Prior knowledge:
Helix content is about 45%, strand content about 20%. By secondary structure, the chain is of the alpha/beta class.
Amino acid sequence: MKTIDVNGISVRYQAEGSGPWVTLAHSLSCDLTMWNELAAVLAPTFRVLRYDARGHGASGAPDGAYSFEQLTTDLIGLLDALHIERTHFVGLSMGGMIGQHFALAAPQRLNKLVIASSTSRIPPEASPLWDERIRLAREHGCAALVEGTLGRWFTPAFRAARADATQRIGRLIAGTPVAGYVGCAAAIRHLDITARIGAIGAPTLVIVGADDPGTPPAMSEVIAAAIRGARLEIIPSASHLCCIERPEVFNRLVADFLATDS
């Protein structure tokens, strides 16, 4: 893994494999290691770029509210620094939100787009939930968010059967810098781009877990309906982090989509 200065912060990234570029963007409260399994699947046929978003992992975590314009500029700056002219893009949750903004801001840089476990709008009635999460992080650190987050991110059956995986993600949640969590949460709670995403022209695959309570299938249905030609895939017996809970299904869907000519 390496770091590079981009848009006023240090960004940690990892590049591996060979072939066309594909960029992977993680969820809130995770880092680039969230994509270990997918990166291993894609690396034989793609050059895979993973990075820690602003405020996460080993990337810089400045104080203050962040915006998706800022997070998108971070991504474009990273691509520029690495001389990547075009890339496929796979983003989950917050990463999927970044992907939608990237597709609108720099369509000439994007080949195919995968939006997983995400949404194009946070309804106003969800603001108190985000306010409470921000309060907990500020007052008690991100460790206070672990149990509630894992309860939304994985089904009870998966948590019971795969304590190793849930504990690994729990450590990522707990280790998220408070400034980074609060900064990104500020961007997420104001997300509202449903009216704009119809302009996305890249071939798009939308993936969601059938049992995701945070970004339920209805939110993915809105995205798939708004983007012309988008395909929606609902993974059964999976919650928010469907790439961890059902990797065999998630990774096959992504790999097959990126490999086709459409």
